[in-house]
Each structure stands twice: as structure tokens, then as C-alpha cells.
Amino acid sequence: MGLSDSARAALDATARAMLAARYVTALAGAGMSAESGIPTFRGPGGLWTKYGAPDNRGYQQFLEDPRGWWERRLNGNQMPEMREALDRAQPNPGHHALVELEDAGVLRHTVTQNVDNLHRAAGSRSISEIHGNHTLIRCVACVSRFEREEIPLDELPPMCSRCGGLLKTDTVMFGEPIPPDVLRACQTEAARSDCVLILGTSAIVYPAAALPDVARRLNDATLIEINPNETALTDACSIVVRAPTGEALPELVAAIRRLRGDTRSMAGVPDAT
Ligand code: NAD
Ligand code: ZN
User: Fold this and answer.
1) End-to-end alpha-carbon separation of the chain, Å?
2) What is the mean pLDDT of residues 260-269?
3) What angle do CA 31, 110, 263 make, to 5 degrees?
4) C-alpha distances in angstroms, 222 versus 46, 82, 194, 219, 225?
5) Cα atoms in the Cβ-side hemisphere of radius 13 Å centred on 196
């Protein structure tokens, strides 16, 4: 469809950089899921662009009144626009393309800031959900995670069957520290990377936005942005693809196939470079 010539040229350069790299990772943000119908926070059409940003005390308010939080959640009156979008959303061609890149051994890991579960739904396996996953429940004390169906909700707030701690959604709230296990995994992956795809993120939410710079400082990593709009990391990127990820990533898969001389499927094909 509508990719510009300059976006196509930048995607070819991206494919070459990825095949030349030792360890490619991706940092994904809300823009990856825009084409699945989930609104972003920032940028044109973003929820906060429309309504303004919420206050920073979400986690504090949860800790002060966990029962009230759970009651509001079960009554469905927390950000209904977002909840309905999350319930309806399906992975888009961008998510599927990341799975193909992972299956082909070209993409080693994805750190996503999205809580929408769409990377997993598409089939990504090597992922870290730095802001959690809205379909899971997590213990604030021992960090155990549970499927929603495993947790009885007849008494609120629910408590952890392993340690008795308080249970909350796995989604990281405003003011809540990133769970230590996932933060460690993200830092380890950043430290391994010599090429990072920065996909549909405004790159201003920390610590996620700092991960590409860890790779650049430690490994002189090539940073590549795919986003229709300029971001806080654009200037740090040596390749910029100005296009939506749902259109650009399938084209990137095709460009890598061409470079590898493979016209059918990429999966399992030995690296021809
Ligand atoms: P953000 O809302 O701050 O920025 C969205 C970015 O996506 C912008 O740079 C915008 O230009 C870009 N974008 C818009 N459409 C795009 C498209 N089709 N393809 C590629 N890029 C596109 O998002 P963020 O940086 O991820 O930070 C927001 C935080 O809020 C995240 O950390 C996340 O936890 C949470 N959030 C999650 C979801 C979700 O799970 N889908 C949605 C909204 C917000
Ligand atoms: Zn526990």
C-alpha cells in the first residue's frame, strides 16, 4: 500500500543492518497496537492527547484501598474505552511479522511496553512485558503471576495462594516499580544487543526508553526507529523508517527474505549472508 520510497529504502537498510548484527532485539510501544484498534496514550489520536494525563498516584491509591480498586475493576468503570479495545483487539500484521523474524532467528528478543497480550497472542515467545500483561494477576509480595481464571474473586481483595500477599493486575500502575524479575530480563537483553528496533514508542516512559541507550553505550548498537512520527529517540537512531509498524514490518520480513535469497518462507532457512 502506502509506503514511501524513502521508507522502503530505510527498510532495506534495516534488513541489512539486522543480518549483519549478532544480537537483534526490539523495543515495542503502544503504536505497535494502534492498527489493532487500541488507542495510544500520546501522539495524534492518543487517549491523553484527548483527555489529558491521569495523576501519578495509581499504585499508591491501590495500596490504600485495594478492595475499592478491585470493586471498580469488576464493575467495569475503569477507562471503559481502553477496556473494550483490549477485549476486542487481535494481533495485526506487525505482530505477526515479529513472530516470523523470531522464528527465522533474526530477532532474538522483544521488550514490549504493551499490556495488551497481542505479542503472545500472535506467537512471540522470547518477550519481556516490562509494564505487565492485563490478562494476568500478580502478587505484590512474591511476584507470582496467575491466569485470571485461577483466582477466586468472591472475597476482595484476593490474596496470593503461595505467600498470602496482596494480588493486583499484572499491569504496572502509575507510580509502581517495574517488577524486579522482568526489569532484570530487560536489562540483560539490552546489554546483549548490538541492534535495536524501536517500534511505535514515544520513548519517554522510563526505564523502558533507556534500554536502547544501554545497548548503544555497551555495544555501539545500531538503533533503528519505525514510527510515523518523530520521537525522543529519533536523533539517536541511524536508520529511521517513517511508517506504521503494521505496514513496515511485513515489508521488512520481505526485504530480509530477498537478501537471504529465499522467496518462500524464512523459517528455518540457513543464513545465506
Ligand atoms: P505512547 O502512547 O507514548 O506513544 C505512541 C507512539 O506510537 C507515538 O510515538 C506514535 O507516533 C506511535 N504510533 C502511532 N501509530 C503508530 C503505528 N501505526 N505504527 C507505529 N507507531 C505508531 O506509547 P508508549 O511509548 O508505548 O508509552 C505509553 C505507555 O502506556 C506504555 O508504556 C504502555 O505501558 C501503555 N499503553 C499500552 C497500550 C497497549 O498495551 N496497547 C496502549 C496505550 C498505552
Ligand atoms: Zn505471593
Assistant:
1) 29
2) 61
3) 90
4) 29, 34, 6, 9, 10
5) 32
Cα–Cα distance for residue pair 130/206, rounded to 1 Å: 10
For the cut 60, the answer to whether the pLDDT of residue 204 exceeds it is yes
Q: What are phi and psi of 137, to 5 degrees?
A: -115, 140
By CB atoms closer than 10 A (0-12, 13-18, 19+), residue 250 is middle
Pocket test for ligand 1, best of 1, 11, 36, 40 (most atoms within 8 A of CB): 40
Ligand 1 neighbourhood includes 138 CB (under 6 angstroms): no
118 Cβ below 6 A of ligand 1: no
| C-alpha of residue 164 to centroid of ligand 2, in Å | 6
**pTM for the predicted model, two decimal places:** 0.93
Q: Are strands 136-139 and 145-147 parallel, antiparallel or unpaired?
A: antiparallel
Predicted confidence (pLDDT) per residue in 116-165, tens digit: 999 999 999 999 999 999 999 999 999 999 999 999 999 999 999 999 99
CA–CA dist 220, 45 (Å, integer): 35
Q: Which residues are catalytic?
A: 131
Here the cell at position 258 is 530477498
If one counts every other C-beta atom within 10 angstroms of the C-beta of residue 96, the result is 17
Q: Which of 45-54, 87-96, 156-165, 240-249 has the lowest mean pLDDT?
A: 45-54
Distance CA(111)–CA(229), nearest Å, equals 20
